[in-house]
Specification:
2 domains; 11 helices; 295 residues; alpha/beta; 3-stranded parallel β-sheet; elongated; Rossmann fold
Length: 295
């Protein structure tokens, strides 16, 4: 199984495994959730007219699968939109909220909102002093980011923020009452929770629609996310949750619908189960073909 398309050195690997009767599977992931990356990849495949010659192509969502099929990149019978195994854990999550506010974002250039991330940390530090019965987490992507942010927070006197890279994402997000995210996959994962979802939309977080993970002008998105366009409005949204004022009922049906626009998620069937079923059927098919050749 490869996590790339049928080109470059993967071509030789694919031919090698198929020559010995082993099914070849490609799993395309994550970057197809970001609209402009999807557009780039579709344009590339259309221009070069590549044809997938593996045995199965697994994708995160139906839009990507449709693009492969429409541009003759992969035959329909080989193309499967099965979602992502990492989200299977949400099928068993209890979503029991605690007094937790979480920033699920990273100050790296790939998320295109470095300065806004610092703004949000300043806001959380201010609120952490005002509401000491709440925990304010800044979830880091790795230990290096945790170390760098920890030093900066210490020197800035942000002693009430919990900066952590090791805490489990599902555990933290399912317990959070507010989840703040920028241009990352984590803000999409928040759709599987009952938390208030906030996407800051001022400063360098104001990007063209085609560079955003979620479109603030989309009607379905508006049902699921708040887009504060200033520090003051961001503060108000978080305080509304802490003080239980201006309560807005969580529409889980809309959230699941929006999540499935990016990543296939079936609440009654896991991605892992679908993956295993398809792989087993491919192996059995290859075994029958191998036996028929021997006979």
């Amino acid at each position: 199984m490869f996590s790339n398309d049928d080109s470059g050195y993967y071509l030789g690997m694919r031919k090698s495994v198929q020559n010995v009767g082993v099914p070849c599977i490609n799993y395309y992931y994550e970057h197809y959730t970001l609209p402009y990356m999807k557009a780039i990849n579709i344009s590339y495949k259309q221009s070069y007219n590549l044809n997938y010659k593996g045995d199965a192509l697994f994708l995160w969502n139906d839009h990507a699968a449709l693009a492969y099929i429409e541009f003759n990149r992969c035959p329909k019978e080989k193309c499967y939109a099965i979602g992502a195994p990492r989200f299977d854990r949400w099928l068993h999550s209890k979503n029991q909220q605690e007094n937790i506010i979480t920033l699920m974002a990273y100050p790296g250039p790939e998320y295109m909102a470095e300065f806004n991330h610092w703004d949000v940390m300043i806001i959380l530090n201010y609120l952490s002093k005002k509401y000491s019965h709440y925990k304010f987490y800044v979830k880091c992507k790795n230990s290096f980011q945790e170390h760098c942010l920890g030093i900066y927070a210490y020197k800035s006197g942000w002693n009430n923020l919990i900066i952590d890279s090791k805490i489990d994402n599902v555990d933290l997000m399912s317990k959070s009452k507010v989840i703040i995210g920028l241009n990352s996959l984590s803000i999409l994962e928040g759709l599987l929770t009952k938390a208030c979802l906030v996407n800051p939309f001022w400063g360098d977080a104001c990007l063209p629609d085609n560079l955003l993970q979620i479109d603030p002008n989309d009607d379905l998105v508006k049902k699921c996310f708040a887009f504060p366009d200033s520090r003051e409005k961001m503060c108000d949204i978080i305080e509304d949750v802490i003080l239980a004022r201006n309560y807005v009922d969580i529409d889980m049906q809309s959230r699941l619908k929006l999540f499935n626009n990016y990543i296939r998620f079936d609440s009654d069937d896991s991605c892992t189960a679908k993956f295993e079923h398809i792989v087993v059927s491919l192996i059995e098919k290859e075994e029958k073909h191998h036996i028929s050749r021997l006979l």
